[in-house]
Amino acid sequence: MKRLRAGKCELCQRTDNIEVHHVRALADLARPGQPQPGWSQLMTRRRRKTLVVCGDCHDLIHPRQPAPPLTP
């Protein structure tokens, strides 16, 4: 809660549109044979399953797909 209350993206330091990125387990971050992106390295180094990020950084972590239309 303390990191979230700080209201600052832990990647780019922005203070608007703050969200939390979450992984199920730290082991999910390590994929053999593939380099870890910077956000993943930060989570591994801090041994945290959450990362407080702005919306733009969250979109870089996993791009959101537009919602399908409700009616055709």
What does this structure look like?
The chain is an alpha+beta fold and 72 residues long. 28% of the residues lie in helices and 14% in strands. The protein is built from three helices and two strands, in the order αβαβα. It has helices spanning 2-5, 38-46, 55-61; strands at 18-22, 50-54. A two-stranded antiparallel ribbon has the order 1-2. The chain is globular and about 45 Å long.
What order do the helices and strands come in, and which of them pair?
Blueprint: H1 2-5, E1 18-22, H2 38-46, E2 50-54, H3 55-61
Antiparallel strand pairs: 1-2
Spatial ordering of strands, largest sheet: 1-2
Distance between the termini: 42 Å
Strand content: 5-15%
Number of strands: 2
Radius of gyration: 14 Å
Largest sheet: 2 strands, antiparallel
Which parts are unreliable, with pLDDT below 50 for 5 consecutive residues or more?
none
Number of helices: 3
Alpha-beta content class: alpha+beta
Mean of all residue-level pLDDT scores: 86
